């Protein structure tokens, strides 16, 4: 066919497509921005609307100028089925009538069925929704003003907003029986109700997650993992590595250059400069779980590895550079969680006579010293850097809480108040802070720490005080089981999860 005829035929078909469904043309002409497929002005705008992604900061900026007719600047991705979308967003220009957040739409046309997790400049955050095309917008409000943590979740035809001021737990609202279709448009939006006003929003820590199904099993191969670094002062999160499988529990080496984590029974090192992963040689010990800990001097790595004929997880030590592991505990289950600062002792959670308690053992092996004997589960023991205390978690009161005791097991006392189920306390190298994982009481039992849940990372001063939320994530088991502070006490490494289908290299700085 001649070039001219091909040109005319192609454009004729495009015109026909636009007449049948105008949103097709908008979709076809879109250019991807970051992890999103395209950008659209919903309604009519008095000026062009901008959208920008900056890879070094992993942040998005959107502007909306005088949009009318259900108007918004919408940066979207096509998503099929269930999802959880999260961001930390704020107004760069905040005037009455400005709005930012997440939006889910059946089509890109004004008046489309939709649901929005919306932060309003002059009202509390709300879940806004239109049940029928061309219908009115309804809403259910939270009581959170100036929310900067915004999450929207879809489970079937149920939509949930989770909104918070950074540092506080979520407030939750949901609506049911909203049918937007199976594959829909989901993304960030900025809008203004004033025809001649300009609104601008900045969004960081943007995460698109596909939750696992209710019957999913831990360790399944299609579970995607993100290793993230969190700045404890600013709350800024950075995705540094993604994997199409379950990787867990990053440790930070004492020189600050490398992370160590487990996956599929292997131990891996991750160079923070080259962003490259390598297998650490652990000889024939290749059933390693997420309870691995570095000695305070950084020379040895303690492992927990499953050996069925010995009763389960067995503790070993190996040089941090790799080698042949040395067996420490003779029987399992034994899950390692901490070293003494002098390197002479290991503390672990062990099941003996069907009761899980905290034990201490010499780094050379030998007799085990039982440190707790309360009825219930005692887990996650970790020494403070000065060696004066061992922190651990226990559900002896009916709620999993953080506790502490002297190295000989005396003076056991609760540190958290039981508002959540708190697991795996980790003390900063400077001895000033405790970070731990918090599960919601209505999602898990006091003795469980499953994967694939809405969880918080919370932090509090070692001297005492009210814990604050420093990260909101989809994870749990494997996210932060073992010590993961940077040596300068400024950052935390952790793992968040998603279905592998949502992972994208663009999430990683520089890609």
Describe the structure in your own words.
The protein has 511 residues and is mainly β. The chain has two helices and 37 strands. It has a seven-stranded antiparallel beta sheet with strand order 1-4-13-6-7-8-9, with no helix packed on it. Strands 2-3-14-5-10-11-12 form a seven-stranded antiparallel beta sheet, with no helix packed on it.
Brief descriptors of the model:
2 helices; mainly beta; 511 residues; seven-stranded antiparallel sheet; disordered N terminus
Quick take:
The protein has 511 residues and is mainly beta. It has helices at 3-20, 22-28, and strands spanning 38-44, 51-54, 59-65, 68-80, 83-93, 98-105, 114-120, 126-130, 138-141, 149-155, 158-164, 171-175, 183-192, 198-209, 223-231, 237-243, 247-252, 258-263, 266-271, 276-279, 293-294, 300-307, 312-319, 326-327, 334-339, 345-352, 355-362, 369-370, 378-383, 390-394, 401-405, 413-414, 421-427, 433-439, 453-461, 468-475, 491-499.
């Amino acid at each position: 066919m001649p070039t001219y005829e091909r040109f005319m035929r192609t454009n004729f078909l495009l015109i026909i497509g636009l007449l049948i469904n105008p949103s097709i043309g908008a979709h076809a002409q879109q250019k991807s921005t970051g992890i999103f497929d395209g950008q659209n002005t919903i309604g009519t705008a008095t000026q062009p609307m901008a959208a920008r992604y900056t890879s070094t900061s992993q942040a998005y900026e959107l502007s909306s100028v005088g949009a009318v007719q259900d108007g918004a600047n919408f940066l979207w991705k096509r998503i099929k089925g269930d999802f959880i979308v999260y961001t930390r967003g704020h107004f760069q220009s905040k005037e009455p009538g400005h709005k930012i957040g997440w939006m889910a739409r059946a089509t890109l046309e004004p008046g489309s069925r939709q649901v929005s997790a919306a932060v309003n400049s002059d009202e509390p955050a709300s879940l806004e929704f239109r049940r029928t095309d061309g219908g009115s917008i309804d809403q259910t409000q939270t009581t959170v003003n100036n929310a900067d943590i915004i999450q929207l979740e879809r489970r079937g035809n149920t939509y949930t907003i989770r909104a918070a001021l950074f540092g506080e737990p979520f407030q939750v609202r949901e609506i049911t029986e909203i049918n937007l279709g199976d594959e829909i448009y989901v993304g960030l939006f900025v809008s203004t109700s004033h025809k001649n006003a300009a609104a601008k929003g900045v969004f960081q820590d943007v995460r698109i997650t596909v939750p696992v199904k209710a019957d999913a099993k831990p360790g399944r191969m299609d579970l995607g993992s993100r290793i993230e670094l969190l700045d404890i002062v600013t709350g800024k999160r950075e995705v540094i590595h993604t994997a199409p499988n379950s990787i867990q529990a990053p440790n930070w080496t004492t020189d600050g250059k490398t992370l160590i984590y487990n996956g599929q029974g292997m131990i891996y090192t991750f160079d923070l400069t080259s962003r490259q992963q390598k297998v650490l040689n652990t000889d024939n010990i290749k059933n390693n779980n997420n309870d691995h800990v570095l000695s305070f001097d950084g020379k040895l790595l303690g492992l927990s590895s499953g050996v069925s004929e010995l009763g389960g997880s067995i503790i070993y030590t190996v040089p941090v550079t790799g080698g042949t592991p040395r067996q420490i505990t003779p029987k399992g289950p034994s899950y390692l969680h901490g070293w003494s600062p002098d390197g002479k002792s290991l503390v672990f959670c062990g099941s003996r006579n069907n009761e899980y308690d905290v034990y201490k053992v010499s780094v050379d092996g030998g007799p085990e010293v039982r440190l707790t004997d309360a009825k219930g589960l005692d887990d996650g023991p970790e020494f403070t850097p000065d060696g004066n205390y061992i922190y651990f978690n226990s559900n002896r009161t009916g709620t999993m809480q953080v506790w502490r005791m002297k190295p000989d097991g005396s003076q056991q006392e609760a540190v958290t108040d039981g508002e959540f189920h708190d697991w795996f306390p980790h003390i900063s190298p400077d001895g000033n802070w405790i970070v731990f994982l918090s599960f919601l009481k209505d999602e898990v039992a006091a003795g469980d720490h499953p994967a694939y849940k809405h969880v918080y990372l919370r932090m509090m001063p070692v001297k005492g005080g009210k814990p604050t939320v420093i990260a909101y994530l989809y994870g749990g088991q494997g996210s932060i089981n073992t010590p993961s502070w940077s040596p300068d006490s400024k950052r935390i490494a952790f793992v968040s999860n998603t279905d592998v289908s949502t992972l994208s290299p663009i999430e990683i700085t520089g890609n």
